[in-house]
Design goal:
With about 140 residues, the protein is mainly α. The protein has helices at about 5, 10-20, 25-45, 50-85, 95-105, 105-145. The protein is about 80% helix and about 0% strand.
Length: about 140
């Protein structure tokens, strides 16, 4: 292997854009609208009309990637918060005390992470249901002939 193959040139600014997260408060504001919109979409049942149900599924499929991305960001924020609130060992606190204090300090990050994970799973489940209904509808049309 050549030296260039062992040490490829990397655009550090481009790489940094993918690794640096915005401040937690700004990130929450940016994603709040998207989360509210997806929650609204999930409250609407799938239509009985196959064409309309297909359109609903296409829209949900588009939002699945966004919710997975937000979920991945929330995991990063959660781990960063855990590190920030790590309590050093001392004779004053037991390991259980330290763990409990850390969990209490990162409760909001954990809550957001859990909500986003639930939304992503709900979208996936809705898409699976829609595909099953579409397949069932197609089978009914074939038996009606």
């Amino acid at each position: 292997m050549t030296e260039r193959q062992l040490n490829p040139v990397v655009d550090k600014n481009a790489a940094r854009e993918w690794t640096v997260l915005p401040a937690n408060e700004r990130w929450l504001e940016d994603c709040a609208f998207d989360v509210a919109h997806v929650k609204t979409l999930l409250t609407n049942p799938l239509s009985d009309d196959p064409q309309q149900a297909s359109e609903q599924m296409i829209e949900l499929d588009g939002w699945l990637e966004r919710m997975n991305s937000l979920y991945a960001d929330s995991i990063s924020y959660y781990h960063a918060a855990k590190l920030k609130h790590l309590v050093l060992r001392s004779d004053e606190y037991t390991d259980l005390d330290r763990e409990t204090m850390q969990k209490a300090a990162v409760i909001n990050e954990r809550r957001i992470m859990d909500i986003l994970e639930g939304i992503a799973k709900a979208i996936s489940n809705r898409l699976i249901l829609g595909m099953a209904l579409r397949k069932s509808h197609a089978a009914e049309r074939q038996t009606d002939r």
